[in-house]
Amino acid sequence: xxLTALVLRHIVFEDLGLLRDVLTERGYGIRxxxxxxxxxxxxxxxxxxxxxxxxxxxxxxxxVGDAEHYPFLTPEIAAIGARLRAERPTLGVCLGAxxxxxxxxxxxxxTGRVEIGFxxxxxxxxxxxxxxAGLRDVPVLHWHGDQFEIPAGxxxxxxxxxxxxxxxxxxxxxxxxxxxxxxxxLMVETWLIANAYELAAHDLDPxxxxxxxLEHAPRLTAAARGVVGAWLDGLEGS
Length: 238
Prior knowledge:
Elements (H helix, E strand, L loop, with lengths): L2 E7 L9 H7 L2 E7 L8 H9 L2 E4 L15 H13 L4 E4 L1 H9 L4 E12 L2 E2 L1 H4 L11 E9 L6 E5 L7 E3 L4 E4 L7 H10 L1 H6 L4 H28 L5
Parallel strand pairs: 1-2, 1-3, 3-4, 4-10
Antiparallel strand pairs: 5-7, 6-8, 8-9, 9-10
Helix pairs in contact: 2-3, 3-4, 6-8
């Protein structure tokens, strides 16, 4: 029996990246729903989000609080929330994790600062015993300014000095990651080009991020495959 991984994508160059092979190796066929193009308020999209074997909600440069300017966010959060209440397997990355948190009733808000570049996480005790265990001392890519609070009933898994809420889980099927596991050096290069203005505004040197991407790629690739593979292997009722 074939499995379906439905991917909610907010900007074309933030796709599954390294995670694509992990999913296909486990028998998932991949389908993208494009934010701003698909009608998340429609019954077909809502049903597809509810029924998919797996949903992955990816990142993007907008925020939970931008629904006035990007109206698709409101029905998207509602559709994600319906899926989460059913405890259907869902992985959120960066904005995706923030949308999950908002759908679970947690506050998501700008911090007034950014965290951009490669740096390791500090795992909580719960995180060290979770599927994130393989990320200990592995630099991951951070690219965010907003932050989610940990939803009620969820467990905090990781932190960094400036952003204490980096990951949460709510049972085996719901995982939200503020950071990016999916990137490879080619993806990073595209992000550097697309976000040149933001990097300049924060006086961040793209050469540093580029060099770090190349240096950390082998470890991050192995760790990303291990984390997502372990999470998929531990899903319940899917």
